[in-house]
Amino acid sequence: MNAFADSHDHIADDHHHGPPPIHYSSRVAPAVLGMFLFIASEIMLFGAFFTVYFFDRVVNHGVNGHWPPEGFHRPAFVALINTLILVSSSGTMHWADSSVKKGNRAGLQAGLVLTLCLGFTFLITQVIEYHRLGFNTGDTSFAATFFGLTGLHGAHVFIGLMILLVMTIRAFRGHFSPEHHHGVELGGIYWHFVDVMWIVVYVTVYLL
Fold first, then answer.
1. Pick from 186, 182, 195: which is nearest to 156 by CA?
2. What residue ranges define each of the domains in the chain, with the CATH number in brackets?
């Protein structure tokens, strides 16, 4: 009788607690790992655009003797200012991520708002630059690859801003805490990727 009761209690206890937690072979959270894999695919996408850009440069530099072709001006100074803006946004994003892990809700909100403002400033400056360039995508292969690379990055900035906007709204609604902060962490990883990729684009397109 006692054995039957013990068995019944054991079954009830198993039913109450449910199955054991999933064991992950890696210390990296699945969501974070998924974001890194997504970023790896994005790097390959940018790599394809960089390959086209350098191929075009090698071919046309050999023909014209200089790069970019005559009549095309790259606004390196404006791009430098934009680079400083985007690098600063990485700092504010890191502040937001660190704040949520420490339970500092005000720091989280301030960091996200500042990151959002800096990101919008970058994107608006990029659009204004496009209107002042004096050339368009159909002019030469240089123009096509220039707009291709910078436009691809601009599209990623726009997506990042949408993610930041959702994160900011959730932060003001109190959805994040030191125990539940993966939404901020994942958004931060993506934003840092966008920032680092812009540095590569800036050096490649505006300086080299």
1. 195
2. 31-207 (1.20.120.80)
